[in-house]
Sequence to fold (155 residues):
Amino acid sequence: EGLGFVDGILSAGECRETVLELIDSAALTVHLLAYTYDLEDVTAALVRARRRGVPVEMLVDRKYAATSASTRPALAQLAAHGALVRSLTGRSLREAYSRARPSGFGGPRGALHAKAVWSGDRLVAGSCNWTTSSQANHELVVATRLNATGLRRVE
Fold:
């Protein structure tokens, strides 16, 4: 049964176009997870979704969002239009390193490093950050249609 089926393997540019189409056709909700973010056209599409009454939730990496001059205005714009914008961190690095190296490594927390958008039964996830600079990278992104089991996994 698995989690669904693969619609396509996408480059960074194809990913951007697919995500724009996904957001513009969303009727129920849109969820976006981002490590880095600055795409104005994606922000505009998310604002259009909010204007249609579609709930939008955006989760971004806390450290990156706090330090990126290009991310803060986009997040503020989304929040001003009623999107739920939250910043997250990963677990403590101490946990991860204590298993790998019992000598212990103290220090900062991990990152929200996921890059995904989903709405309804469609999930687009992969290595592509939601930034202008990522459009020049070699990226691997998978577009999927989720079945009931897949939907339970992402909710």
Remarks:
- The first helix runs from residue 12 to 25.
- The chain has a mean pLDDT of 86.
- The CA atoms of residues 19 and 76 lie 21 Å apart.
